[in-house]
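Quick log. Single chain, no ligands specified.
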Amino acid sequence: MYRILLGDESVGRRWIHRLPLRLGRSGSQAPLHIEIDVPFRYGPRKDNKDEQQDSKINSNSHTRGAELNDITTLLTLLSGKDGILCSRWHSLRLAVNSDFKLGYAALLPLTYPMSSLTTLHLKLRCDRHPGSERKELFPNLPSLESVILEGIFMHNYPDMSNAREISMRGGYCLSGIVPQHGLFNAPKLERLSLINDGFVFSFPPVYSDLRTLSVRGSLLTDGLLAVSMPLLEHLSVDFHSYSILEQIARLRDIGRIRTLHLIGGATTRSDPLRRSESQLVHSILQQCKGLNTLKVDEYVLSLLFEDWASYLEPTNPVLVFLAMNSGELMRISLDNPRSISELDRIKALH
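-> predicted structure:
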């Protein structure tokens, strides 16, 4: 495991000095697990307050660009000559503070095939490459199973066709280049997490193995609503607007859900909006005939109180996990009178 936290220039220099020796000692076949984190800009560490102030005033362009130079150098060393070491990469996490914009040149080591890479986590902000002649990043990832693209602006998306788990956290591609068969065309996909505000993605007509879907934001891509998910069991929705809740109510296989997590947040709503969202929550629950676990926050709980008995099947016990803002977790089973009384008691407290 190469876990590299670049906190200042001295750390970068030490890793650049030691890495060739460590790679040589690792042999020619050993798998490489790589983590590179750059949480903030470099800055000289000084104890004297006057020196600290001087360092702020006299910070130079070399220091401000040293972080990016170190990232490129480390990736180049880890990939080896002509990318020979990339076949040994099994996992890669590259997380760079959003203050930095990575140019295409900094990512050139990522243009080699990575036949053994199973896990990829990218948290980047990239500059648009001005030229059209460029190699594709992550061109060949036949073993990739788990992908997290977080706050990322890439030149092209990696091929995720073999992925079993995809988490897209605000990811957007500057060039608009997507894999030939579509970004989310992953027949083996079992878990999908989308956190975005309406970026347009295309989806295949069927996710035959998908069991867990998590969505968060203000708007979903309509294409997701028509996808068949015959094995879908777990749904988590953190809704920031009425629109995404309305879309979830139209999800094709929502009736198959067994575990539902609804988070409305602490945003103040007008009375008309509250009533509309309450009706949508009721509509969603009425469709979930096989539901056995429900987890909500205080806002959604207040919506449930308005008419909770009308949408729960009396013959189908539902375990309700109430996630309170205080951090307390309460468990209520609606299959016995005591639990129902407890729910009424909580209602009286609100």
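Confidence is low (pLDDT under 50) at residues 45-64.
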